[in-house]
Amino acid sequence: xxxxxxxxxxxxxxxxxxxxxxxxxxxxxxxxxxxxxxxxxxxxxxxxxxxxxxxxxxxxxxxxxxxxxxxxxxxxxxxxxxxxxxxxxxxxxxxxxxxxxxxxxxxxxxxxxxxxxxxxxxxxxxxxxxxxxxxxxxxxxxxxxxxxxxxxxxxxxxxxxxxxxxxxxxxxxxxxxxxxxxxxxxxxxxxxxxxxxxxxxxxxxxxxxxxxxxxxxxxxxxxxxxxxxxxxxx
Length: 234
Hints:
Layout: E1 4-7, H1 13-24, E2 28-33, E3 43-46, H2 52-66, E4 69-74, H3 89-99, H4 101-117, E5 120-125, H5 128-132, H6 138-158, E6 163-170, H7 176-179, H8 183-190, H9 201-211, E7 223-226
Parallel strand pairs: 1-2, 1-4, 2-3, 4-5, 5-6, 6-7
Helix pairs in contact: 1-9, 2-4, 3-6
């Protein structure tokens, strides 16, 4: 039976790869997007995760289309890279509001239906940077590290209701965002990846599909690195 799935930031990059992977596995997938157009073949809902009202509306539309949401992937995120002495406070808080508080809004709304069903899967998309740090990304790293503590607290709160909460921490992934880096920058990053290549969106998506599946029913509070070894030891 198809499960109702909601993927935030699911119109491009990692989010779209996750949405397509879950749809191919037989789930009924809705995606949120902040700008542009919804991806072809998926039910799209315009939503800014910094707005509680938008998040509530997105869930309501997904529920009306596919039924109570059983799997949520909180993927929506932004970067505003700046060295700390030059970082304005609004740049710091903007990243946290989208990446961390946005995940709080999404998970809180997801709980409403999952607690009634006494089952559910929540997967948060963090980053290797949240565990290892990165110069010029203190705001982004803080937001992505915060997801780990948030997820593990939720895992303890919700486990008795059959709801799992896990984190996927991607490394360097081939996306529109990373394509903007020049060849020298990409080469410098890949030198530190033991597997010697960037991840594809599909690499991340397959890990999410596993955590959302029955095969992962006894896994909660986990942080799964999909980074080619980039973040080993963290």
